[in-house]
Amino acid sequence: MFAYIVRRLLYALPILIGVNLITFALFFVVNSPDDMARMHLGVKRVTPEAIERWKAERGYDRPLFVNTHADGTQKLTDTIFFDNSLRMFAFDFGRADDGRDIAQEIRDRMRPSLAIALPTFVLGLFVSVSFALMLVFFRASYLDFWGVVLCVAMMSISSLFYIIGGQWLVSKVWALVPISGYAPGLDAARFLVLPVLISIVAGIGANARWYRTIFLEEISKDYVRTARAKGLSELAVLFRHVLKNAMIPILTGVVVVIPLLFMGSLIVESFFGIPGLGSYTIDAINAQDFAVVRAMVFIGSVLYIVGLLLTDISYTLVDPRVRLE
Amino acid sequence: MDFRFVLLWTDALFFVLLALGLVTIVYVRRSQPLRAAWRKVGSRATGMATATILLAFLAIGLADSLHYRPSLPAAAANGGEAPADSRDAAYSSEVLSALDALLAPLRTRLEKTYSAPFAGELYARETVELPDGEQTRIHPRLKYGAAHLDDPESERGQDIAGRLGKGAAAAFGLWLVAALALTASLARRRGRGWTEAASALVRGETVLAWRAALFTLGAILLVAGAAVALGSHYHVFGTDKVGQDVLYLSLKSVRTALIIGTLTTLVMLPFAVALGIMAGYLGGWVDDVIQYLYTVLNAIPGVLLIAAAVLMMQVVIDTNPQWFATAAERADARLLALCLILGITSWTGLCRLLRGETLKLRELDYVHAARAFGVGTAAILRRHILPNVMHIVMIALVMDFSGLVLAEAVLSYVGIGVDPGTISFGTMINMARAELAREPMVWWSLLAAFAFMFVLVLSANLFADVVRDAFDPRRG
């Protein structure tokens, strides 16, 4: 098991390097730093000096890969590639355009993001699985049919509609919670209820339908028939046998997103004014702060790879037949 | 009126896609198993009903893809003097489409700013001077909406009912013609009498579920009839901030949604199919490289990769304005680039599915036999593997569509979607969002965008379900 994890982590390295090369190519090769400077400074203030100053501030005035003006190892380290891409492996992301340290900013903003994402994930999973189990319990009945219709209808609604409609109904018409905002500490709960609720509702349609398919596939298997023949009640069959065996396909889809919860949700956070990583990313995209976007891409990839590893490990926990070699 | 035909990039690709669709139909007609699968789709009421709705959307999108530049009156073009370059300068820089021409009344009747659906007055108050010199703040009357009524408040109900009746009558007439034509063709094909064909249709005993299609067509015609009857004298869905008719905007958004939903899959299809079956069939280092490639692309969170790519592409477009003759061409380039980027980020799922399926197919007897006979690798892939994974491609194509339509709205909201000048559901929502805090609320453009999206995505989802049921061999 330990050897397996180490091997998987080593395997992650080439993937991260690939991610790094792609982002580097996107940000520095497709467009020269001059183009970026011109775009950033706007049409009015573009003078050759302004562009040079913009590049110098960010260290973009150096060569991309090999610095022929420097000596020794500096030839390779005093370059844009080294400073902006390789440093990321040490989680050193440099500074954002407003001069703040990106790594510090990410640490600060992780907490609000998690405060929304974690309850959404846990409660959402619970609600969707329960709903799917209920549909399976009443399978091939009108309840099942209309439940599936409801799921398809719910997944056909834009997530923006859930957010805008929810804000309007709960905050404006019923005036139960503030429309948006955030407060540190326990006070945050007031602001978090609505985004969490909306995220759960928005996810039910697609998730419950998917879980239902998984459960239905399990329920036609032989061990279920045996369990029924044994005289177990339908509820016991569902919870003790079907749910347990359906864990593997469910885990495949679910565990991989757990680490990504840190990244927060772009849309929800920006609608509700939550100072998390999602809104940080959106602000960076809108302000065209390339350093922040690059850092988030890198962190996202790292978390995705961690998620894949966690998925494998979780298999061994729910299915004793699986051994990681 | 004189005009010059304009072929935008997305138009061309859209037509290529349609041509491919027609080729597929010919191919399907010749192949027994495929014909059986599609007949299964057609025999389900849901399949025929949603297909009818999707075809209606396709017709709107198609009309909106025939672009042209109208010629300008010589006087307006160059201040009365004969233009120096008479060929070029005589055409407007505004690119219009056939749909714009059809909807000219909706497009040209601009109000000043917001107005509610069916309203006779502007949403905002304005200071006007009364004849006696005093000033007062009132809601001024609209220039076009309900302008034919003297007192909208009291006359509107009756007027709307009258127009609705006329629209419904026209729709019913059209529907009757369609129903008769359908009965005639059914009677001819089956070699039966009219009454027999009609009764089979009514009782839903035809091979394809024509009754459902006819019902849906009736509903579509009713809605269209009502819109035509009312749209000429009211703003059915109100107007937006700059006074554009929201119904017009919603109809224009359909094309953007269709383009994103279909072209994205089209551009990614060759990569996904080629790489997927190559990785599965060849194995070895080819498999390793391709797997590495899609793991890397998968590792980057989709939205961020799209954001980064769109930001970069925006820089390229902004620094090279000389590439584009008109604003429409620039917006079109951005739309196409968005499709490409979405395609690059979304081909990995299909590629992995195809690889898995090919791994299974590779070990089947007939493939072994082909190899033993000395058939080349390329021929095996083309003749024996490709046709047997096409059902997966077909399912992926229809399943992805609705997700992409929804994604467009979210991406445009984040600011990494289509060009702000392109009319799309996302830009409509984005514009309307700023006005939600106003009192009374400006809800109509939001609701119109969401309603159109809902109908489109719901029909696509239901259609995709039927197609998957018919094509997936595991679902008997």
Description of the molecule:
The complex is a heterodimer of chains A (325) and B (476). Chain A has helices at 2-29, 33-41, 48-58, 74-77, 80-84, 102-137, 142-155, 159-173, 189-219, 222-229, 234-245, 247-254, 266-272, 277-287, 290-318. By secondary structure, chain A is mainly alpha-helical. In chain A, helix 7 packs across helix 9. Chain B has 476 residues and is mainly α. Chain B has helices spanning 9-30, 32-43, 45-63, 74-77, 86-89, 98-102, 104-108, 152-190, 194-202, 210-231, 246-282, 284-299, 302-319, 327-362, 365-372, 377-414, 425-433, 444-471; strands at 3-6, 67-70, 96-97, 126-129, 135-138. In chain B, a hairpin with a 5-residue loop joins strand 4 and strand 5 (135-138). The chains are: A mainly alpha (325), B mainly alpha (476). The interface between A and B is large, with 46 and 43 residues. Chain B: Its main location: membrane. Chain B: It is a multi-pass membrane protein. Chain B: Keywords: Cell membrane, Membrane, Peptide transport, Protein transport, Transmembrane, Transmembrane helix, Transport.
SSE blueprint:
The complex is a heterodimer of chains A (325) and B (476).
Chain A: H1 2-29, H2 33-41, H3 48-58, H4 74-77, H5 80-84, H6 102-137, H7 142-155, H8 159-173, H9 189-219, H10 222-229, H11 234-245, H12 247-254, H13 266-272, H14 277-287, H15 290-318
Chain B: E1 3-6, H1 9-30, H2 32-43, H3 45-63, E2 67-70, H4 74-77, H5 86-89, E3 96-97, H6 98-102, H7 104-108, E4 126-129, E5 135-138, H8 152-190, H9 194-202, H10 210-231, H11 246-282, H12 284-299, H13 302-319, H14 327-362, H15 365-372, H16 377-414, H17 425-433, H18 444-471
Antiparallel strand pairs in B: 1-2, 2-3, 4-5
Helix pairs in contact in B: 1-11, 2-18, 3-10, 3-11, 3-18, 8-9, 8-10, 11-12, 11-14, 11-16, 11-18, 12-14, 13-14, 14-16, 15-16, 16-17, 16-18, 17-18
Family (chain A): Belongs to the binding-protein-dependent transport system permease family.
Subcellular location (chain A): Cell membrane
InterPro entries (chain A): BPD_transp_1_N, MetI-like, MetI-like_sf
